[in-house]
């Protein structure tokens, strides 16, 4: 069983939760920009949470199902269609062999995640299937998808095989999805302004009081030069108390550095392992997935929280994932494809 790329689009690459445990060697983590959507897509189709998905950015990607398969699409709404008919998201969807799946363009968000029941058979590099484009490692041949790339699919679980067969029986056209879905509230709106929570970074006190206030009171704009490595923000510049320089230090996903022009850079999935700019803030882990759906010209404002609050927010996100997991397990055990959970 396989899926074939008909057109690569803006950018389509395979990502999982990243290449963990090698930053001390200078190895880039990479991974999904929106790990929340990635995990839910995998849960829906019965894969492990950390399995690789196809991360599709903005528009243009076209894929062909070479065999009947069960898929899930989560994240931003990039207007996926088969035979000009919109494909429902955030739920299991059976698609027939030969179906052409097109992502026509972003309606909400910026990135979609495609999971296939059984998972994609990909190259492993240091324990991860994530693609790191600059080093040409991981994913499918270490690069973005191109025309005629053919990716093999793994073994489907017995529960998802039963669901696939049930949906196939009821299919009239090229595809058929369950009536229930599990879309979290965050993805239900077309957002252009985002509130992002942070804790103070190690060099927060390098900036004067006026600059500290600017950081939380102003609204920043995402620059067009932003990418998977980091999001550059436009706004009023911040000023350091002194001109002292720092030695390069370790950075993490969501570290906010202030560059020489006084403007923030939020370091993300393809970030380097060290940085030499002062770290004014560290984004709350529970808010990191939001950056995966932000587009150039979108707005951000920052809100400071305590470390304990950050832990609580992360625990709440995990509880939500667990509830989704239990709900889907209950439905698949019952063989339910037509039970209404909520209205889309």
From TrEMBL:
Pfam families: CT_A_B. SUPFAM superfamilies: Cyclophilin-like. InterPro entries: CT_A_B (IPR003778), Cyclophilin-like_dom_sf (IPR029000), PxpC (IPR052708). Signal peptide: none annotated. Gene3D superfamilies: Cyclophilin-like (2.40.100.10). One of its GO terms (molecular function) is ATP binding. Residues 300-334 form a coiled coil. The keyword Coiled coil applies. Residues 24-320 form the Carboxyltransferase domain. Keywords: ATP-binding, Coiled coil, Hydrolase, Nucleotide-binding. The keyword Hydrolase applies. NCBIfam families: urea_amlyse_rel. This is KipI antagonist.
